[in-house]
Specification:
single chain; 128 residues; mainly beta; Immunoglobulin-like; five-stranded antiparallel sheet; four-stranded antiparallel sheet; ApaG protein; ApaG_domain; ApaG_sf
Length: 128
């Protein structure tokens, strides 16, 4: 598990290899990840949007931007957490992801970024 705290918001990431499949005559490697966002601060916050940079071992880079996470914009009271699962496809058995969430603090209406630590994606059969 990879963890990081930014401005009182703790991000924890767990990953899992889901398998391989062919799509359009190309091998794809499927990965799942579970993220827990925990408000360790004293203010109510809301996650508004996300930014991801996904990179595989062939140096293919995909940038993903969007509102919320899994169609939601969770509001977190102090001490609360929100967990969700998602996934990505890579063209190689290795890769990594990192990014950030744009959040707003309800106490002062200021927006801030919460960084998602870089985490590895790797198929178990490809490791030495």
């Amino acid at each position: 598990m990879v963890q990081q705290v930014t401005s009182g918001i703790k991000i924890s990431v767990e990953t899992d290899f889901e398998g391989t499949f062919y799509k359009n005559y190309k091998m794809n490697y499927a990965f799942a990840y579970k993220i827990t966002i925990e408000n360790q601060g004293n203010d109510v916050v809301q996650l508004n949007s996300r930014y991801w940079k996904i990179k595989d071992a062939l140096n293919n880079i995909e940038i993903v931007r969007g509102e919320g996470v899994i169609g939601r914009k969770p509001i977190l009271q102090p001490g609360e957490s929100h967990t969700y699962s998602s996934g990505c496809l890579l063209s190689s058995p290795f890769g990594s992801m990192h990014g950030y969430y744009n959040m707003v603090n309800f106490s002062n209406t200021k927006e801030f970024k919460v960084y998602i630590p870089s985490f590895k994606l790797s198929a178990p059969f490809s490791l030495n």
